[in-house]
Prior knowledge:
The protein is an alpha/beta fold. The protein is built from seven helices and seven strands; from the N terminus they run E-H-E-H-E-H-E-E-H-H-E-H-E-H. The protein has helices spanning 22-33, 45-56, 73-86, 115-118, 124-134, 139-165, 190-210; strands at 13-16, 37-42, 63-67, 92-95, 103-104, 135-136, 171-174. The strands form two sheets. A five-stranded parallel beta sheet has the order 3-2-1-4-7, sandwiched between helices. The chain has a two-stranded antiparallel sheet with strand order 5-6. It starts with 12 loop residues before the first strand and ends with a helix.
Amino acid sequence: MEDAISHPRNTRVAVVTGGNRGIGLEVCRQLASNGVAVVLTAVDEKMGAEAVEKLKGLALSEVLSHQLDITDASSIARLADFLKTRFGKLDILVNNAAVSGVVYLQHHADGSVTSGEMFKGMDRDERLEWMWGNCRETYDAAKEGLQTNYYGTKHVTEALLPLLQASSDGRIVNVSSDFGLLRVTFVDHAVPIRPLLVPNRTRSSSVDLNKN
Length: 212
């Protein structure tokens, strides 16, 4: 869904990956509330369009959706081409899309309930206890976690870097978590990949962004 969006040349433009629910959707809402033209991305085109309609129901019209699978090079390239043609620049990139890297033994493995909803009311120890009892890490799940949470974020950033450099004030925001700070042998090894590796990638991207 690539609706028309009015954008004066001085309007700031943001891309939010995984913007159709949870933290990503709230980031889109707050950016749009502050006058930023937001491109909300989602793997599922229908879910992205539905998220945009939710935001438009809040009188936030400067939002559109675009399909993006951050593990698919052609999908990333299509987004980059769209942004270049429509806006000619990118001011803010919010890397939010991620996967858990584990197999859930109970329901909600389809993503119909966010982790925030699942863990509502639990403190950190309670969340850990729940995950110990209800999650298992498999080779395929861990591989997906690495490919998505680190390499996917890296590839999106690299592809959109020229558009960020075309902005007078380009910004990259990488959403992470504090799980990587836990000093325990944790059942979910793929989730800490993001908080451990992404901050280093953030610093590297900052250097690249400032070269121009």
